[in-house]
Amino acid sequence: MQKHLSLRSYLLLSFWILLILSMLLPTWYYYRNLTQQAMNDAREAAVRQLNLFHALILNDSNIRSVADLQTWFEKTAKPAQLRLTYVAAGGRVIADSEVPASSIRDLDNHASRPEIMQARTEDVGITIRYSRVSRQDQIFVARRIQPNDPIPPGILRLAGPISPLKGLLDRLWNSFLIVTALIFLASVVLSYALIRQLRLPIGNLVEVVEALGTGDYGRRSRLSPGHEFFPLAQAINRTGENFGKKISEISEEKQQLEAVFDGMQEGVMVLDSRGKIRTINRALSELIATASNSVGKRPLEVIMSLELQEACDLILSSSSTAVSKPYNLQIVLGGNRTYDVTLVGFPERKRGMGAIAVFHDISELKRLETVRQDFVANVSHELRTPLTSIKGYTETLLAEKQPDPQMLSSFLQVIAKNTNHMVSMVDDLLRLARLESRHQSFKPAPVDPADAITAAWKACAPLAESKNIVLKSDIAPHTLHVSADYDQLVQVFRNLLENGIKYSTSDDELIVSCRIEGNRATFGIRDNGPGIPKQHQHRIFERFYRVEKHRSTHPGSTGLGLAICRHIIRNHGGRIWVESPNPEEDKGCTFFFTMFLARKDAEQEAERVTDAVDMV
Fold first, then answer.
1. In this structure, are residues 489 and 482 in contact, taking their beta carbons and an 8 Å threshold?
2. Which of 11, 243, 324, 382 shows a CA-CA span of 20 to 30 A to 1?
């Protein structure tokens, strides 16, 4: 991955390049001009000196030989710190002011020297190069010369140092380069120092912004008012404060929505635009056990209902105009739970939102509807049987002009019996209606359950004696008292005892038991009859509901006894239920119900429990 330079690096490089250019370019320009001018002056001065020596040699009559020329070179050129060289035809040096006469023959041939070659074709030959003799750069100027005999014609060359100004400029240039380097280093150090001073507040601002990005909206920048970044710090601080307020408002609204969402009794499922479950509320997770790990799954993977999945697909694939219309369907889950599901799609599927499904648990409504239908069917059956009997016997009597007195008496007894049964049924219905509406007021008082059981058994004695059934009770008189209405408690015991007698075989027994649990007494009435199947146990307390296999074997019952017991116990704040079969048996059943103990007995029981705990 290519790494890009930061803005700071670009600024530093730009500053340093500009600094170097601003210092080097003008200096180099003036150095170049001065150097060029100095070189031009040096060339002109060298040419003038060469012309001067040329004229002196030609006008000096004492120079009659090469030896005289060598001597003249040494006397004239050395004091002036110059070098004179005489190069004969062919490039042979015959005189040189810097070389002894004995060593002149050892000098190299100078025919190829640039200034010598230029002097042969032009008036003057000029070149600047390094001299191995003087070991420094020198200017060489040459021109043709033809002295008196016996000195052969040749090239007179003058060599001298370059202008002193050039050396001074070179020294100044070197010094300038050193000063420039020092200034550059100082600027680097100063730049880093200044940048570090700028980085501290920038770093502080970056930390504040990062803190705001991570949700720390209380973080603030502390810069002095005179600082360059103070306005930026103030803007960031205001932004953080505004963000904090907005986030707090949004969080509060979110918490309120989540509280409402989770507090709803209806189950809610939110789908995204792909048809996957995005979230569910607490009610739905409680209604459907498999919904707890449902996020990211399709509805069919959580709720085994093809109708629900097809409805969700239909909502998600619908156009924006059809999405806003709710879609309703009913599904049955778990075999006995019925839900009314309302699906509504989002018109504009922003942020991945697709649809929402609301589950209304209507199982109780369905159950009540079933109970109502059963009640209508049962009451119709219970009324139709005696009415049919009364109608049949009445029509028979009416058809006889002079009925036999014995037959008349028998028929009238049947009519009276069925009429009494209907009266009893109507009375039970009225009593049940008063219990349900609580129009039948009562004042709870301390009641001895042993007395209530005795009174109930007396009412059931004729039926029990006909089947030779006996009652066993472990409730001794005057041992405890419950808070109840005496007549209603007798009614509960009577109905339960009658039930036990009806469904018990001859020569059997009923057992009444009691146990104390806290401030309640739990009573049990146990019989050894055929028992009640599990699938019927939750419905036997409904009106007219009886297990079908016993309907025809026990005529005369109104089918309302257990429903009356349930409402009496509920009005007293208790609970009634059945357990069947009996423990360690395959038949029989035991009806249990609870009653509050009377205040005195409840206090005594609490003291007894406290004493037992203290003893432990």
1. yes
2. 11
- The two three-digit tokens of residue 560, written as one number: 């309302």
Strands 337-345 and 327-333: antiparallel
The model's confidence at residue 349, banded by pLDDT at 50, 70 and 90, is low
Whole-number Å distance between alpha carbons of 191 and 212: 31
Fold observed for domain 264-361: Beta-Lactamase (3.30.450)
> What confidence score (pLDDT) does residue 514 get?
93
Whether the Cβ atoms of residue 296 and residue 274 lie closer than 8 Å to each other: no
> Going by DSSP bridges, is the β-strand pair 125-131/93-96 parallel, antiparallel, or unpaired?
unpaired
Domain boundaries, the chain: 8-170, 215-257, 264-361, 367-433, 442-614
> DSSP class of residue 90?
G
Q: Are 500 and 523 in contact (CB under 8 A)?
A: no
**For the domain 367-433, what is the CATH code?**
1.10.287.130
Contact call for residues 198 and 230 (beta carbons, < 8 A) = no
* Sheet with 277-280: strands ordered across: 277-280, 267-272, 353-361, 337-345, 327-333
Q: E strand or H helix at 19, and its extent?
A: helix 7-59
CATH number for the domain formed by residue range(s) 8-170: 3.30.450.20
Cα end-to-end span (Å), the chain: 78
In whole angstroms, what is the distance from residue 232 CA to residue 363 CA?
Answer: 63
- Residue appearing with tokens 């600082």: 227
Mean per-residue pLDDT, 38-52? 83
HSE-CB of 383 using CA atoms within 13 angstroms: 10
Residues 6+ positions from 239 with CB-CB distance below 8 Å: 212
Instruction: Look at the domain 442-614 and name its fold.
Output: Heat Shock Protein 90 (3.30.565)
> Residue 69's CB: how many other CB atoms inside 10 A?
20
Instruction: State the pLDDT at residue 431.
Output: 66
Q: Give the containing element (helix H, strand E) for 470.
A: strand 470-473
Q: How many CB atoms lie within 10 A of CB 560?
A: 23
Cβ atoms 93, 107 nearer than 8 A: yes
Q: pTM for the full model?
A: 0.42
Q: Per-residue DSSP letters for 506-566?
A: TT-EEEEEEEEETTEEEEEEEE-SS---HHHHTTTTSTT---GGGTTTSTT--S-HHHHHH
How far is 351 from 32, CA to CA, in rounded Å?
71
Rounded CA-CA distance 609/400 in Å is 74
Say whether 264-361 and 8-170 share the same fold: yes
Per-residue pLDDT reduced to its tens digit, 550-570 = 444 454 566 678 888 888 898
Phi, psi of 276, rounded to the nearest 5 degrees: -95, 150
Residue 450 has a pLDDT of 92
117 token code pair: 């070659």
pLDDT exceeds cutoff 60 at 234: yes
The gap from C-alpha 152 to its chain's centroid, in whole angstroms, comes to 108
Q: Categorise residue 129: left if φ over 0, alpha if ψ from -120 to 50, beta otherwise.
A: beta
Q: Considering only CA atoms, which of 199, 175, 141 is closest in space to residue 31? A: 175
Q: Which of 119, 125, 121, 156 is nearest to 139 (CA)?
A: 125
C-alpha–C-alpha distance, residues 264 and 282, integer Å: 8
β-bridge pairing 125-131 and 136-145: antiparallel
